Amino acid sequence: MNKPLRRIAIFCGLLVFALLLRDNWIQYVQADELKNHEKNRRVLIARYGQPRGNIIVDGRPITGSVETNGTDFKYKRTYKNGPMWAPVTGFASQAFDANQIEKLEDQILTGNDDRLFFNRTIDMITGKKQKGGDVITTLNGKAQKAAFEGLGNKKGAVAALDPRTGKILALASTPSYDPSKIAGASKKDSDAYNALKPDVDKDDPMLNRALRQTYPPGSTFKVVTAAAALENGKYADIDGPTNSPDPWKLPLSTQPLPNEGNIPCKNASLRQALRYSCNTVFGKLGDDLGKDKMLEEAEKFGFNKEVLTPVRTNASVYPEKMDQPGNAMSAIGQFDNRATPLQMAMVAAAVANDGKLMKPYMIDSLRAPNLNTIEQTDPEQMSQPLSSENAQKLQSMMETVVKEGTGTSAQIPGVTVGGKTGTAQHGVANSKNPYAWFISYAKGDDGSPVAVAVVIEGSDTLRGDIAGGKLAAPIAKSVMQAVLETQSDK
Amino acid sequence: MSSSTTNTTTISTAGPPSRRNTELAMLVFAVIIPVFAYANAGLALSDEMPSGMLSYGIGLGLLAAVGHLVVRKFAPYADPLLLPIATLLNGLGLVLIWRLDQSKRLAQRAESIGQVFAPSAPNQLIYSALGVALFVGVLILLKDHRLLQRYTYISMVVALILLILPVFFPPRFGARIWITLGSFSIQPGEFAKIIIAVFFSGYLMVKRDALALASRRFMGLYLPRGRDLGPILVVWAISILILVFETDLGTSLLFFGLFVVMLYVATERTSWIVFGLLMSAVGAVGVATFEPHVQQRVDAWLDPFAAFKTGGSDQIAQAMMAFGSGGVFGTGLGQGNSDLIGFAANSDFILATIGEELGLAGTMAILLLYGLIVERGVRTALAARDPFGKLLAIGLSAAFAIQVFVVAGGVMGLIPLTGMTMPFIAQGGSSVIANWALVAILIKISDTARRPAPTPAPTTDAEMTQVVRP
């Protein structure tokens, strides 16, 4: 009986061998894939196994971690002034993953980043628990506060930049939400999360309006049209008369393009046209320049492209395909022309920075737990939408708007302020509440430290350009003042 | 040492060393390793030495000592590896179960479905003691394994009763494999596997010539006579019935494999393997087509991660992720999250905890330990001098090998999950007790096999022939 016995021995050996092979396959070959599988809860457990690093504004953390007695997750994320900072931080939730900076810089914040390998090794040897690194933002706490409080219970957004560097100083979006309330994994957190979903809460509080929502820019876009006119040499003298009839009929149409109210727009100079926000002048200007030139200029300002701040922004749109009247309408910020608040802040910033557009960013540096800087963001020029000379002409025009035009409510005593109001029609045949816009910059001796764009949705009572001036300009003013104050403190 | 290098088999008439001291030395390791593992798990889980450490160490040590002394007295020539490996596996199993007892996640889970979470390790320690008691009992009471031959047909009846009984008890987790008496529950399949091996050995020893030779050739196969084949067909039919009524894939697979292996060894005819595989294929495919429980298992095996979409059981996927997260060296005892698997983490799926916390290295070591037990069993079969002993030893070894393959293969996603327990390691009284009995019988056979033949007594006849006078 020994021959079959030996064969059975081989058979049993093969069974064990098959198990060993399989084990090597799943624990060596496939290990990484299984380890990082999206359904592998261990990834989340590790993420909250130690306090996360912090997101820092003005040298102070706006986030924190609190120890919980949960089964899976030892620590929970907390937020200081959560609703105000939510458009910057995003959220990190034990149950619902994370987004924005919390997600993008997750590796640094959990301490798993390869660049922290040395730190981790030292910690392991000295027996310390793993710690996360910090994300240092470019934001200005006072400006953010001014923006958030200025928006109050209105629906809207504010984006503020330092035109010289592209540093984002404020990013506010209302209505907002408190990421602390959805940071955990409890029933309460998931109820709170579900209540924030856009199909439950029509106001969509989790939408980052400053970066992700595009609005028709309305008259604020006339700044771009004016820049295109200057750049293409259509009118060199901003105080000379333009060839603009009033009323002006849209091309290929019998319909006249109306101005808001009774304003002197016939053959008005560029300065006067911007001061009174003449639709006829800028509509005709856009038509005279043609679609290609308008598109080119808009794209130089950053339209039709996503910006990674590193939080992704939605691309603003200057339509590439449209007919002649569509182009004329787009030149005054209507039709299919859409812009994010950040985009319009970039327009103001480029003008204020003598034509140079700096790439906007909100992460200044990444810091290891031992306070070593592991990555520093350097300012980077994105494009040059207009020459220095033309930029100064445009500045002069925008300053007139604030001095004696539609934007007087943004005046700051002793400071040069340039701006442009806008009220964008919304809905079919202007049926819905218009959006009130204001873009502006403040200027000191060493260039402009701040450019702001403010948009407010749904201003019930006010229509016309006055809306941007009444509703949005005061918010822009307080943001600019906040930045100027911190500048003078230094 | 030189004798062992020249003498590579355990068969020897030259009086092999008894190896009892080797066994003792290895037993010391088999006790020390789990004690260290216990300390390790305790330190990792709560930064302090576990409170039950001393009693656990002493308990395991005592079990090992009793086992060793009884082997020394009643089976002095037994294989020296079987007892230490069984002790090591049982000891590690206790540590792993204790470690899963500390899981807050499992406690919460039990609470959420309205149960009281009870630690399993104390029970398992009692079962281990009962197992060793049975081990001792078998060694003392079973003077010679050939005595079992007398109970061939009684074994068959007992095995059938054990297998059929669970049908009358309510199913648990979708399978009717338990006999529940009050708070106690027994899985009779574990005991049946030993008893049925006894039946096969006894039956085949008598009938093997008839099965092998008195057959008609049909289409290239040797078909035996009906009266010889009868009981075998009965067993085949019953294993299919188990599959249908108890939805217990593992046990049916085990019996079927056992039965093919033993037939093949007894008759030495390859045609039996073909015949056996054919019958099992027919049975398995037939059942799989109308039994939803089996279909679910196959679907879960083909795509374990589909459970997250369809809402089925995610156990296999969780086990796979546990293995993957363990990687080569594992997270260390107590530092993994294998309890994410859920309620079967300490029974069917305990290998996943080994995989995650001890890594590829630890899992391979455990699998090799099982391989060693099987190898020592096969060696015992080779060494045994009587056909009954040979058949019984190979039957028990093959049953053990198949059980390990079926459960480990299922947990690692190599084959569909069938729901059996890792011998000695998994939580479960029946399994531990039955496997200690299995090892006891193997030890008894190996003792008989390795016992030196008694030196022939000097006879007067011999002297007579020497003194030849001219």
Supply database-style keywords.
heterodimer, A: 490 residues, alpha+beta, 18 helices, 16 strands, 18% strand, B: 470 residues, mainly alpha, 4 strands, 68% helix, globular, disordered N terminus
Can you offer a commentary on this structure?
The complex is a heterodimer of chains A (490) and B (470). In chain A, the strands form 5 sheets. In chain A, strands 2-1-5-11-12 form a 5-stranded mixed beta sheet, with no helix packed on it. Chain A has helices at 2-29, 31-35, 41-47, 82-89, 100-104, 106-110, 117-126, 141-151, 187-196, 209-212, 222-231, 270-276, 279-289, 291-300, 324-331, 341-352, 388-404, 466-489, and strands at 55-57, 60-61, 63-67, 75-79, 134-137, 155-161, 168-174, 248-249, 256-257, 357-358, 363-367, 373-376, 381-383, 416-426, 432-444, 447-457. Chain A is of the alpha+beta class and 490 residues long. Chain A contains 18 helices and 16 strands. In chain A, strand 15 (432-444) and strand 16 (447-457) form a beta hairpin. Chain A is elongated. With 470 residues, chain B is an all-alpha fold. Chain B has 18 helices and 4 strands. Chain B has helices at 2-6, 20-46, 53-74, 82-101, 104-112, 121-141, 152-164, 188-213, 226-246, 249-267, 271-290, 292-302, 307-310, 315-326, 350-383, 387-411, 429-450, 460-466, and strands at residues 179-181, 184-186, 215-218, 221-224. In chain B, the strands form 2 sheets. A two-stranded antiparallel ribbon of chain B has the order 1-2. Chain B has a two-stranded antiparallel ribbon with strand order 3-4. In chain B, helix 3 (53-74) runs antiparallel to helix 4, helix 7 packs across helix 8 and helix 10 (249-267) packs antiparallel against helix 16. Chain B is globular. Chain B starts with a helix and ends with a helix. Mean pLDDT of chain B is 84; it is low at 1-7. The A-B interface holds A 1-9, 11-13, 15-16, 18-20, 22-24, 26-28, 30-35, 37, 39-42, 45, 71-72 and B 104-105, 108, 261, 264-266, 268, 305, 308, 314, 317, 320-321, 323-328, 337, 340, 355, 359-360, 363-364, 367-368, 370-371, 374-375, 378, 381-382, 387, 390-391, 394, 397-398, 401-402, 404-405, 408-409, 412-414.
